[in-house]
Design a protein that fits this description.
Elements: H1 2-19, H2 27-33, H3 37-48, H4 54-66, H5 75-80, H6 85-100, H7 114-139, H8 141-165, H9 172-189
Helix pairs in contact: 2-3, 7-9, 8-9
């Protein structure tokens, strides 16, 4: 029933697409991109409830003043800009390294367990997204990057150890799967 599982993500995307018109625009988008101050305040009240959002509005106005002279680029213009090549190549390298690292294949699991590992990987990615969205404002991106890389290095060392011991102790294969999940969570929170 892999086709049902695969089509489930399309169903979720369709539901999101249907309900998207009923959600308000992002307040920063309304203010910074469209210049709609009233719409920004209305969206703030709709999203965050009634209250005084003068501080948040003032911060967005400061950001608007700072970015006043800069041109907003679309994706093609961004890809043609040589000054962003180092950042783009680093980001591309990180994304590709996770896709091609073969972590799931290294665990030496029975074929019947692999679908559950795939489900666990997806749940790990979801956990990292939710967790990161809560802590990024508290700690900042720099600490999350450093902490994520340090955690990833530690988890990879533990994963390698569990893989070396998996022939002697078959239960270590399941520890390897847990380390793979933790690696994905650390990657999602950090890099």
């Amino acid at each position: 029933m892999w086709n049902v599982l695969l089509s489930f993500s399309g169903l979720v995307a369709l539901i999101q697409l249907l309900f998207l018109p009923f959600f308000p625009e992002s307040p920063p988008y309304l203010l910074l991109q469209k210049g709609d101050k009233a719409g920004c305040l209305k969206a703030m009240k709709k999203i965050w409830g009634e209250g005084n959002y003068k501080t948040e509005f003032d911060d967005m106005m400061k950001e608007k003043a700072i970015t006043k002279g800069t041109k907003i680029m679309n994706v093609l213009e961004l890809l043609k800009e040589p000054s962003v090549y180092p950042q783009l190549s680093t980001m591309l390298l990180l994304l590709l390294s996770l896709q091609f690292c073969g972590l799931s294949a290294t665990a030496k699991l029975q074929e019947s367990i692999i679908p559950y590992v795939s489900l666990g990987v997806a749940i790990s990615e979801l956990i990292s997204i939710i967790f990161c969205s809560y802590i990024i404002d508290r700690f900042g991106r720099r600490i999350l990057l450093w902490g994520g890389y340090l955690l990833m290095a530690l988890i990879l060392a533990l994963l390698e150890t569990s893989l070396l011991l998996s022939d002697r102790f078959p239960w270590m294969r399941y520890c390897s799967v847990i380390f793979i999940f933790l690696f994905i969570i650390a990657y999602g929170i950090g890099p």
